[in-house]
Amino acid sequence: MKEKIRIGICGYGNLGRGVEYAVKQQTDMELVAVFSRRDPASVQTVAPDTPKFSIDEIARFQDNIDVMILCGGSATDLPKQTPMLAAYFNTIDSFDTHARIPEHFDAVDKVAQASEHVSIISVGWDPGLFSINRVLAEAVLPQGSTYTFWGKGLSQGHSDAIRRLEGVKNGVQYTLPIEEAVEKVRRGEQPELSTSEKHQRECFVVLEEGADALIIEQQIKTMPDYFSDYDTTVHFISEEELKENHSSMPHGGMVMRSGVTGEATQQNFEFNLNLGSNPEFTGSVLVAYARAAYKMKLKGDKGAKTVFDVTLNDLSHQSSEELRKNYL
Amino acid sequence: MKEKIRIGICGYGNLGRGVEYAVKQQTDMELVAVFSRRDPASVQTVAPDTPKFSIDEIARFQDNIDVMILCGGSATDLPKQTPMLAAYFNTIDSFDTHARIPEHFDAVDKVAQASEHVSIISVGWDPGLFSINRVLAEAVLPQGSTYTFWGKGLSQGHSDAIRRLEGVKNGVQYTLPIEEAVEKVRRGEQPELSTSEKHQRECFVVLEEGADALIIEQQIKTMPDYFSDYDTTVHFISEEELKENHSSMPHGGMVMRSGVTGEATQQNFEFNLNLGSNPEFTGSVLVAYARAAYKMKLKGDKGAKTVFDVTLNDLSHQSSEELRKNYL
């Protein structure tokens, strides 16, 4: 029997949990251990018997883990952790602070080149699968416009902004594409659209006792950066209703390219994700790219990589022969 | 200035024409010549000044063309031409006889390994971009079902079958996805669907004078392999109407994967093409992969390849740095 790819998870929140679920679905992988900054005994993994360790012990697993999947945040965790861990492991991260990607790539590359590991950064669906489709669509249709729409999806940042308001007990915010804008793109009009012309925002808010709904609604709708530029709807609901109907973390969206070929032939390209759980899907993408990192390392590749450097062949558990026979 | 990638086109029908249009849109390529089995003087290229030669002269262009794009048919042209031309050039073809792909790959690989060229076979949208999405979706969502829907699109084979009937002067056939089947997949029901349960067929037929519409309709609807298993609609129209409304070659379709993660979370993946012209879009895909073949050859790669072996990095005219900065 072929040996399984040995996976480690560094950081265990919603994303780490999604990765644990995803590894279980892959027949060519096994989860070796979860590493956390918290007391390992306090970490509630999906499988109760998943080995858990302090992140301080991670380096001693160097020879027991083929790929370390980093599940920390982009703000403070990954800029430190990915370069640090690339010294010991092939790594996957979901670094998504757009403006700092080149800098993060260079920092990781320096370490991974020296340690001869493969480190794929900024993996997930956006950045990730959406990025792939933006490049693919533009390579095939150089004359045209590309659009990214997000939603319907729960936005963590906007939900936090609502919850910080005085008088708000709890709340969530969904980003939704504006259907009229989507249809304009599909019709080939190639409109120029700002983010707020493509999306609307819908908030579900639980008030503290005695809080004034009108004032809170006004505060949300006029909040700069987050809501003031958007068509925003605010619904007030009970804590029970929030728990009942708004506890999952759906997301998704689409990448569209409206292009022209020949004299004036309209060509539409569309990639669409409708995700019941954002962290579970993102975890599934990270796990697929862990396989790619493993296969690329076996072939002698090294250094920092992105989804743009990975072939479908390396991403799949099928052999090249099987792929040609069954998927072309 | 960077030197342009020098492209040749072998075979000049609708697809060759699409390739000529597509090369013009790419800033890093130039079309060197078109090769045809016909008398070169009789070939009507898009640009009147495109150099045209007999296919018999093709080998002497060995040092003047970086990538030869083969635009012949899969039945008889490509099985001979691709192995023959891989001796002289990096090549791209759109070989789509599904059952013979492994055999075609081996024949091309043997020549391209020896001549040290890169030959990417079975490029287009299906096989091609659809194949990529089937592999990508399954790698990320191993638990689930993948569906391919075609249409709305003009089917050449089915149109030919109609036109062969006695009493039929002209006609076209469109394949359409059955919307109810698409919705079932989107709802996550993972139904088992045969090709005829996913598609319906719509025919527009011009009768010869004196032909009996009822008999022709019956002959179409009961034609084995082509129509008898399908929900088929037949419209009779005038020759003028056919020319006016049914002269373009639209096509498209979608690849969907309905997957499950975690305990029972529904995740939907969808790739959608809506093409105003099938040959122009296919030509655009071939041209993008010509760039990839060129870049792979420069890096020392060789042999037969498929879309599964190509990175986005090699497909794009942008540098890795630009891609990371602007597309992730």
TrEMBL record, chains A, B:
This is Meso-diaminopimelate D-dehydrogenase. NCBIfam families: DAP-DH. GO terms for biological process: diaminopimelate biosynthetic process; lysine biosynthetic process via diaminopimelate. Pathway: Amino-acid biosynthesis; L-lysine biosynthesis via DAP pathway; DL-2,6-diaminopimelate from (S)-tetrahydrodipicolinate: step 1/1. The keyword Amino-acid biosynthesis applies. It comes from the Bacteria. Belongs to the diaminopimelate dehydrogenase family. NADP(+) binds at residues 12-15, 36-38, 71-74, 94-96, 123-127. Homodimer. Gene3D superfamilies: Dihydrodipicolinate Reductase, domain 2, NAD(P)-binding Rossmann-like Domain. It comes from Fundicoccus ignavus. Residues 124-277 form the Meso-diaminopimelate D-dehydrogenase C-terminal domain.
